[in-house]
Design brief:
Elements: H1 3-10, E1 20-21, E2 29-30, E3 34-41, E4 46-53, H2 61-76, E5 87-91, E6 96-102, H3 109-112, H4 121-139, E7 142-143, E8 152-154, E9 160-162, E10 169-170, H5 193-196, H6 209-225, H7 236-244, H8 258-271, H9 281-290, H10 301-321, H11 323-328, H12 340-359, H13 373-411
Antiparallel strand pairs: 1-3, 2-3, 3-4, 4-6, 5-6, 7-10, 8-9
Helix pairs in contact: 1-2, 4-6, 4-9, 6-8, 10-13, 12-13
């Protein structure tokens, strides 16, 4: 009994023989050594994805060992940001094991994130989930080695799930003195420079936590640009040369959330430093939790926006309460009494104020263009002046309304 057979025997409780039905005859996804089909699991009563090995296992001992390791490693992983392993079953002429996981209707992060603003707050949330899953893998001595948005699936709750462990490396089961086993190499565009630099065969760099961090930086780039790294280079040889020569991806166009974009871009640049200078995954998680979207005065821009709108709401409530005062003390002169023309003027001011509020932007916007800072500050003063005038106008309308009601009651 070889290693693959021994592994399958030890995982008999995950054997789904006879439980997988309605398997699609056409593959719906492709990997380096496998194809992915949709099917139905009777045991789980849900649609599942079946990962079927394409190559023959009969005389390929390295592939049999690699597949055994993949199944063994995946079956032991349990984290909110790692795709769960449901089981396996054997099929085909060689009775090769196919791996089963839940089918993700929302597909990969590559497609899913295009539904949301590029480089926005949700980008940070998704990246934090990816980093959490990666941190868990590293804590289990597992290196992903092929991290990219195409290998990150999205659950029905919108949670990112790391997948494609066909190229993952289990450090705990080593055949090298360094403690790392090498399976299938990752995709060039996401690979760290040290993995591509020509070196002595005995000193050949192997995927590790630091190379996963480099790839994480490329995932950030994907979400900021909606493009693959080095998208302008069509030939893999040119991509490899660019990485080896230290040519990093160019900065994408900024998004509508410049502070968020800036911090995410700086984070990606740190991921592409020399291995020893790269942040750990835990440091990535900490920075994604605290450093994004910070304004010049140290406050979160989203919180600033909420505070500004809260002030507007509170002002509206205050104006509503002031109508009680206007019943006793109408602050209007004889020529300010309510007329159709005066009401139109007041409502015109109110509409302009609403437009002004909608045009307001966080104060840190002024720091983007130092030359026009004074102009932007004056613009904001004028906008807030309109808001104040509108509040006064609404207050006057409340007073006129109260006075009109009082007059109608006296006439009755």
């Amino acid at each position: 009994m070889d290693r693959l057979e021994s592994t399958l025997s030890s995982l008999a409780h995950l054997n789904l023989a006879g439980q997988i039905v309605e398997k699609n005859v056409h593959a719906e996804g492709f990997g380096g050594q496998s194809d992915v089909y949709s099917a139905w699991s009777r045991r789980h009563r849900k649609k599942v994805a079946v990962k079927q090995v394409r190559a023959s296992l009969r005389n390929d001992l390295p592939l049999r060992r690699s597949l055994a390791k993949e199944i063994c490693t995946w079956s032991k992983l349990d984290h909110d940001n790692v795709l769960p392993f449901l089981g396996f079953f054997t099929e085909g002429e060689n009775m090769a094991p196919s791996m089963v996981c839940e089918w993700m209707e929302d597909g990969t992060m590559t497609v899913y994130m295009r539904k949301f603003p590029r480089g926005g707050a949700y980008t940070r949330t998704m990246l934090r989930g990816v980093a959490a899953g990666l941190s868990y893998l590293h804590s289990k001595k597992v290196i992903h080695a092929d991290l990219k948005s195409h290998n990150i699936l999205i659950s029905r709750r919108g949670v990112p799930l790391l997948s494609d462990f066909g190229v993952s490396l289990a450090l705990s089961q080593s055949q090298y003195s360094s403690g790392t086993t090498v399976a299938v190499k990752g995709t060039y565009r996401w690979m760290a420079a040290e993995l591509l630099r020509p070196t002595d065969a005995k000193a050949q760099a192997k995927p590790d936590e630091k190379t996963d961090v480099w790839a994480f930086g490329m995932v950030i780039y994907e979400l900021l640009s909606w493009k693959v790294p080095y998208w302008m280079l069509k030939n893999n040889i040119h991509v490899v040369l660019a990485i080896v020569n230290g040519d990093l991806p160019t900065k994408p166009d900024e998004s509508d959330e410049p502070n968020m974009f800036k911090h995410l871009w700086e984070l990606s640049l740190d991921c592409w430093k020399e291995a020893a200078a790269r942040p750990t995954v835990q440091q990535l998680i900490d920075r994604l939790s605290t450093d994004i979207n910070i304004s010049e005065d140290g406050r979160d821009e989203a919180s600033n926006a909420r505070r500004r709108w809260r002030k507007v709401v509170n002002a509206s409530i205050a104006i509503h309460r002031m109508q009680v005062w206007s019943h006793h003390e109408p602050h209007t002169s004889e020529n300010e009494r309510s007329t159709p023309e005066s009401r139109r003027r007041v409502w015109h001011k109110a509409v302009n104020a609403v437009i002004a509020i909608r045009r307001m932007r966080p104060s840190s916007q002024a720091t983007r263009e130092p030359v026009g800072e004074a102009v932007k500050m004056n613009d904001r003063r004028r906008l807030w002046h309109k808001v104040v005038n509108a509040c006064i106008a609404i207050y006057k309308m409340r007073s006129w309304s109260q006075e009109q009601n009082a007059n109608e009651r006296r006439d009755e």
